[in-house]
Amino acid sequence: MCDLIDIGVNLAHESFDADRDAVIARADAVGVRRMIITGTTATASEHAADLAATRAGKFWATAGVHPHHSAELDAAGLGQLSTLLERPEVVAVGETGLDFFRNFSPQAAQLKAFRAQLDLAAATELPIFLHQRDAHEPFLELLSEYRDRIVGGVAHCFTGDEEQLHAYLELDLHIGITGWICDERRGQHLLALVGDIPDDRLLLETDAPYLLPRNLAVKPKTRRNEPQFLKQVLDTVAEATGKTPRQLAAETSANAVRLFGLGSTERD
Fold first, then answer.
1. Where are the beta strands (DSSP E) in the chain?
2. What average pLDDT does the segment 32-47 reach?
3. How many Å apart are CA 9 and CA 48, to the nearest integer?
4. What CA–CA distance (Å, rounded) separates 35 from 16?
5. Would you list the domain boundaries of the chain?
6. Residue 257: exposure state from Cβ atoms within 10 A (0-12, 13-18, ≥19)
7. d(Cα 10, Cα 206) in Å, to the nearest integer?
8. What gap in Å lies between CA 98 and CA 110, rounded to an integer?
9. What pLDDT, on the 0 to 100 scale, is given for residue 1?
10. Would you call 50 helix, strand, or coil by DSSP?
11. Could you count the other beta carbons within 10 Å of the beta carbon of residue 133?
12. Sign of CA dihedral 250, 259, 47, 45
């Protein structure tokens, strides 16, 4: 059985409230025993950290404000994030970045919130958990400005093209691959691109409850994604890269441990 780390799962999401323990057990049964729980607002980040603390050494969390909620980030929220980032189970700043596809927050607010969280990453020397959609150029510009001040990060849920991939690799970022690669409608290009990602820079994630892999033989009636389906992402990426699932699981898990400092309660 493969030992997998899901580096991006919204396990504190309300859709898991009724059966969270069963979801965790199903993931554990297929080898997904370690997870990083994504924070998307200051309050949600606190919930993620609290949940991670219930299974120390197996679960961790990120703390940040998603670009959709950028307009909500004020001085109090930044203070809350700063406090959370001192907790040993919180291993990254984010989810943060830019999303000009939906613009749920004004672009100016997104840029301000992104910069503020890059400042937090620089100050705490924690990696950054990044989101980008339809905002590659301003995202790259701001990230490049800060790159020599942050220890590293991951382009979470990468869905971009070859140019974007290589731009992020040139910044020495890790690349997170989700079930998007399992989608024959919109993720086929990733099957060719994933081979361009260096072995030591690839990470796997579900982004559950979102992005249910479309190539599952049997899909859940609820259409809810779960961390147990990281195995489907693993198998799809392994086939695309010509690796065995066991080899790929070992590589991506080692990458997650190294980037996020998992297994240690000390800051390097």
1. 4-9, 32-37, 59-63, 90-99, 128-133, 153-155, 174-177, 202-204
2. 98
3. 10
4. 15
5. 4-260
6. middle
7. 9
8. 6
9. 75
10. helix
11. 16
12. negative
pLDDT at 195 over 90: yes
Q: Each residue of 138-184: pLDDT tens digit?
A: 999 999 999 999 999 999 999 999 999 999 999 999 999 999 999 99
Beta bridge partner(s), residue 99? 133
**Which amino acid would we find at residue 54?**
T
Structure tokens at 87: 């907790």
Closest CA to 94 of 36, 148, 138, 51: 36
Q: What pTM was estimated for this model as a whole?
A: 0.96
- Provide the pLDDT for residue 35: 98
As beta bridge partners, residue 175 has 155, 202
Q: Please state, in angstroms and rounded to a whole number, the distance separating the CA atoms of residues 239 and 222.
A: 27
Rg (CA), the chain: 17
Residue 2 has pLDDT above 90, yes or no: no
Contact 6, 35 (CB under 8 A): yes
4-260 homologous superfamily? Metal-dependent hydrolases (3.20.20.140)
Q: Is the pLDDT of residue 265 over 80?
A: no
Residue 113's Cβ-count burial label (10 Å; 0-12, 13-18, 19+) is buried
Distance between CA 48 and CA 66 in Å, rounded? 14
Rounded distance between C-alpha atoms, residue 86 and residue 12, angstroms: 20
What whole-number distance in Å separates Cα of residue 143 and Cα of residue 118?
A: 8
**What tokens appear for 244 in the block?**
């065995």
What angle in degrees, to the nearest 10, is found between the helix axes of 107-124 and 75-84?
30
What mean pLDDT do residues 217-229 have?
A: 95
**CA 201, 202, 206: angle at the middle one, nearest 5?**
145
| pLDDT over 50 at 264, yes or no | no
Tokens of 176: 């997170």
